Amino acid sequence: MQLLTKEQTAALLANGAQSANGDIDPYPVVKLFTPDAQATWLLTELDPTDPDLAFGLCDLGLGCPELGYVRLSEIREVRGRPRLPVERDLWFTAAGPLSAYAAAARRAERIVELEAVA
C-alpha cells in the first residue's frame, strides 16, 4: 500500500508551504499506523523543500505521544513483530485541528479519536 495518495501529498505540501509563512493549526491529513504494534502518526504537513520530512503527532506506543518531524522513509521501514508494513487508515477523517489531537493524546497517553468538532 502507498503511504500517501497524490491528493494527500498535495494537501500536506500545501500545509507545509502555509506553515513556512506562519503558525497554523491544520487538521491532520492522514493517519498512518502499524497493524502489528501500537505506533500511530497523524500527519499535517510535508516540508516543500524536503517532501520526505513530515510534521505531525507521533505515537510510538510508549505512552508519550509528541508533536514533531519524522521522515516518511523511516516510517516505511517500521515493522512490528510479525513484520507487517505501516498502513494508511483508509477511513480516517480528522475531527479537529492537530492541537486538539495533541491535547487529547497527552491526557490519554496515546493518540485517540476526537468527537466531531461543531
TrEMBL record:
InterPro entries: DUF2958 (IPR021341). It comes from the Bacteria. It comes from Methylorubrum extorquens (strain ATCC 14718 / DSM 1338 / JCM 2805 / NCIMB 9133 / AM1) (Methylobacterium extorquens). Keywords: Plasmid. Pfam families: DUF2958. This is DUF2958 domain-containing protein.
